[in-house]
Each structure stands twice: as C-alpha cells, then as structure tokens.
Here is the input.
Amino acid sequence: MDIPETLVDLLSQIEDKMLPALDHTVWERAAYYHLLSKALLRVTRMVDCTISGLASTLGISDTKAREVLRAMHQKGSICIDSKSRTGHVVRVFVPADLELPASEAEAPPDLESLDFYNGRRYLKALLRREEGRCFYCLREVSADTLELDHVDPLANGVDHSYRNIVISCHECNKLKQDLQPIQFFRQVLRRNLLSEDEFEDRLARLNALKLGDLVPKI
Here is the structure.
C-alpha cells in the first residue's frame, strides 16, 4: 500500500488536497474517515459496509447513508466493488491512488499590508530577522521574553509594518518609550550596552530597516 510514511502525513494530504479536490460534503467526509479507519487495517483497503451500519454511525437515515455512499463512489474517494451478504464491499482510496489536480501555488503575502504588531502573529519571522537579539542592545531574547517595539514611536502615528516593528528586550522596550530611535541608540551606547562599532552597526541597520531592506521571511 503506497501511502505517506506517517499517519499525520496521510491525513494532511487527505484533508488539504484530496477531499477538497473531490468536493466532499460534510457527511461524505465523515463517511470517508469512518471507512478509512477500517481500511487502514487491511492491505487491500477493502472493507464491508452496510447501509444501516453507516447510517447508525453517522446518525442519519438509511436513505441519506445510501446517497452518501453513492456520491463518494461517483466522486472517486471509494469504489463500491461488489455486494456481500450484509451490504457492500468497498475499496477506500487514498491520495496516492488518485490523479488529483495540482494545487495552485498560494500567492505570496503582501508584506506591505501585514500587521506585524497586533496578535504577535509574525513573532518568529521577526526573531529570525534579528537572529534572536534585541534590535537596540543586542541582548539575546526568545519568543517568551521579547517585546515588540515601534521604532518610530506610536506618538508619530500608527505604523505596524515590518519597516517599523522590531523585537526588543523588556528593558529597552520600557526605557525607549517615545524616544526617536537614534536618540535611544545613543542612550544605549552611554550605558555601555553597545560598543562604538556596534553603535555604528545599529545605525546602519536602522537605515536598512527604514528602506525596507530587512524583509522578514514569513
């Protein structure tokens, strides 16, 4: 049986690719997973299925169960192979059995329109961009300890773009407040948290940020 290495991979392919491509309804999805749970225990993936048994499992009428089974056969997720004394003998297909249409590549997100502040949704992308260090003092931070900071203070207007949102340690976030970034970098330098070379590097990085050169990988 040619299926992905793990059950998680298989279920992911079924849910993300196969069932949407075959346009299965909610009841057809439920029936498919019910039959699949039995089929995976058999090399041939052939299982006995009774209308009354399927109806009882799904909590629907026999008539509805019969319609669901027929629709699944027509759409191609199963094949009603033959009739048995108790019902139908059904072969259950998995994505590897079918020639499914290639899914269209998702369009890349419009970075200029994304909000990098609210909800901390793009935290990991910002962490990668700054290599796990505070944008201001270069102290190591993690997803659990970092703060998100507006380089240009909120007092100057709302800008939650990747050009203005950076990661910082809790101390820098608290001390910066409404200071302009260059002012705060000088303050960090005076506190001996940056060397002269690091100070110059931070100014260069600030300029690159404003130019949009520091694009986080989503």
Remarks:
- Strands lie at 46-49, 78-83, 88-92, 147-150, 165-168.
- Residues 126 and 216 are 6 Å apart (CA to CA).
- The chain has eight helices and five strands.
- The radius of gyration is 28 Å.
